[in-house]
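To close the section, here is one more complete example, presented without commentary so you can practise reading it yourself. The ligand is FE2/S2 (inorganic) cluster.
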Amino acid sequence: MPRYRNTMNVDKASNDPAISRRSFLALLGVGACAGAAHMMGAAALGYLYPNAMKTPPSVFSIGRPQDVLATEGKVFNQKYKTFIDVSGGKVRAQTAVCTHLGCTVNAVETGYSCPCHGSTYDLLGFNTGGPAPRPLIYFTVYQGASGDLLVDKSREIQDPSQAWFTPTV
Ligand code: FES
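Output:
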């Protein structure tokens, strides 16, 4: 008569392992189901969370208007590879990503210079030398509902004079 092995009927006299193959596979299946249910639950909760509360990944804050306007001139934002330019109560944001192959440009006395292949740009960001095919573009700056100044990298502006934003303090 064959002996069937399961967790309820383990022959203690034999030197069987503490857990049978069947039990192990059953546990593995339960674990996989629990993991899948957890992921589906997280996705469902994310779906129920209001979208209006989320900031798109292309948008980032540069701070309160009074703090931003307190710094006159050009400041490099390392995290978002963007130059924040403040002048006379207005602010604009310009990319620091070289239009050749994407290196980060440096601000120099004559404008910008790329350390990778030597592209140069003038003070407004127009390409003046090297392999860079296009100027450095500007991003839309606006004031969010919280009052913070926001930069939207998905809304590009080609004309430097159109890129200025005047916040209300
Ligand atoms: S990446 Fe800037 S010149 Fe090539």
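Once you have examined the tokens, check your reading against these statements. The radius of gyration is 29 Å. Residues 61 and 150 are 4 Å apart (CA to CA).
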